[in-house]
Amino acid sequence: MLFYICTDWALVIVEMHPHMWAKHNMFFKRIPHELLLSSVKHPHLTVDSNMENLECQSKDEDNCYEILKQEKKAATKIRLDLLALWFAAGKRNSSHFRQLAEESIASIFRLLTIPLMGSQDIFGYSDLQHLKIRLTEYSKKVDLSNCPQITPAILLLSLLPSSYIMDPAKKKIIEKFFINSGGPSKDRHVFPQRLLQTTTFEVVQEVDISKCWRLLIEHAVDYFCKSFPCLRILKAAYLLNIGTISFLQLLEKFPLVCEIDLTVDSTPVIPALFTILSSNPALIPPVPQKTSIINHKAVEIMPFYKFGPPLSNVTRLTLEGRTDVCDSVLLYISRFCVSLCHLNIKGCISVTDVGISDLICRCRKLNSIVVCDTSFGINSVQALSSAISDGGNTSSVHSREKHLNSVASNLQELHMGGCKGVSDSSLLELMSQTQLLKSLCLRGTDLVDQALYNFLGSSLEMLDVSNTKISGAALAHVVHRNLSLKCLKAKDCRNLFPDNSCIEKRECCFFSLHEELHAEFRKTYSLEEIEFGWGFSTSSLSDMEPIMMSLKTIHIGLGGMLGEDALRKLPSTCPLLEKIILHFQVISDATLTNMVSSLINLQELSLCYCFGDISMSSFKFSMQSLTKLRLERVTPWMTNADLLILSQSCKNLVELSLLGCPSLNSDSQEIISHGWPGLISIHLEECGEVTSNGVSAFFNCKALEDLLLRHNGPGLQRNFILKAASEMPLLRKLSLDVCDASEGDFDIPDYANRYSLSTVKIARCKSQRCAFNLPAPPRRSVHVESLVLVWNSRDLTRTVVKERL
């Protein structure tokens, strides 16, 4: 066992080339030379080794490092073409890995941009070995996520025996298939299965192909079915080429699969947040399809009894954000997934309350349901609350027995945030039956105090009652009974404390609340995340101090008032903090400096609309753990020089958001892209003249997934959307403003050319008439009307919305 542990460890060392780290690690030099050498030479290690040179090395401990250095001499030893894009991009600012990262980026983009036609010599290689994903008989998980360069041909090549590549005849067949599988059409060259047989990897139980948008699901399913017969978990998130038909194929071909994740980005057009002015599908010709079974439209109209699908072992199904999921899909799921325990349809705005309730009535084994921002309403609540009866007759069931024999009584997770269709009376009934809940989200619902008083559970670990009308007393009732609570979110709750303007009275009320709970909280020390707003104050934090030592996340929203003393004590009160989000707080330079220098685990810092004398001196400390930084209306003094210092202090950022930095200019793009080449999210709004001369340097952030540029200068090219999608192959979300367009408008790419894009939002400010011919907005509005483009598995929907202020 030790041998294989060391083999896996050596694999990580050699694969990622962290020999510089190993050289300074005190434990590495203790590894016996013979053991490390044997590990590297072992055939199951997925990195080939330069054996001739290794054999000649002396056996003193310093030469352990030479074993690792040998890999650097052969570029083909590491499959640079197949590294995850985010990993390669993130290493471009590393002094040790920069050359490796640049080579990897170049290799990845050769696969992405060069048509797969003609000889393989166009890639600079004489064989296909460099394109094989490493798999062994011991592989349990195949993780290809974030690799947009993966194609059906590369996947198939990896599943074929290595001997095939050495056989000229079989190699010719492989190359022919590889050449003909690169076009945009799904009507591809069919692989000759009779001539070549794939290898079977019976140990593989999990496959992740998330964000591999060039990998056609129809081909992938065929290959996985033959090579991974024991597959149990399939993750295929953020792929818009997986529609209902592919989903059905997946379920039919994998009887052992128990977990499926088909998450996509939730549409920003949530009815509770926007007024929809108009919506219509774009007139885009459908993408040609050729599948081995019935097409998508037939699925929706064919009677389900004709399918006769086999029973399924699927217990966890995630369809979050999928707008192509409608009631007919839910009906199919309810008849097919008879063992379903967990269902996530968050943001599936095409389903109805009736459709959800029908599924609940059929899937009686459900113990976890996530329906946030859907039409989940009274009918669905009634389905959860009704007694389980095979005969469907519940009239004779005693009230208490009914409560103990309903789907609600078995639920451990219920997330229904943003569901406005649930009445207060139905919530009263539902809460009285959910004694086993461990995770409960009621954000933005018509939750009233009595519903919380009806809740008798004592196992809650997460509770979200944000943006509701509950009182402090009702919240105290729940917290008092659930001493294992780890996460408590009560932001935007205006009735949490008495409705008066007297700060002293509010603090006294909150003190009374925690005085009551103080003795119970001291027994647990389990609280890890809190979100509060209205009424939360310095004394509130002081009263909670005994339970704050384990806190990892603190979020203080509008209405919360932490004083200077409380913020200054935060690092000592909560030494394990990883995430700090502060809105409308007064914070000084000294306090912020104390935070960033003392909290060594801090990973996310968000300061939004805060006041105080913050300066650049607060950000001159090294913050190597920080990966997310949001500064909104707190650094109006920021210049390019300051931005450069920030990039040197926070080298590992993957998300950056700046709002209100008017001194920045077009040179800021180079500072950002060079300092943080691995960014996956950039939000810049009202940041001077950053885009006045167009956008070029941002395209060097090759792993970007989310880009927001608004009011940074009218220099964005007309073809910016298509250009951004082609230069940044993982880009899914793009937010722009018409006033930044150099020609007053943007070209909209068609489906075939939108790459991985799922959502584009184009806003219009009050000073400019909209390019999509809408009436001029009122002068009191700023960002009122927006054009939202949402791509799903079949088409493009154009929606014009007006934000509800």
From TrEMBL:
Taxonomically, the superkingdom here is Eukaryota
- SMART domains with a match to the protein in the record: LRR_CC (SM00367)
Q: Which InterPro entries match?
A: Leu-rich_rpt_Cys-con_subtyp, LRR_dom_sf
BP GO annotations: SCF-dependent proteasomal ubiquitin-dependent protein catabolic process
- Write down the SUPFAM superfamilies for this protein, in alphabetical order: RNI-like
Cellular-component GO terms for this entry: SCF ubiquitin ligase complex
Q: What is this protein called?
A: BACK domain-containing protein
Q: Name the source organism.
A: Arachis hypogaea (Peanut)
User: What are the top taxonomic ranks of the organism?
Assistant: Eukaryota, Viridiplantae, Streptophyta, Embryophyta, Tracheophyta
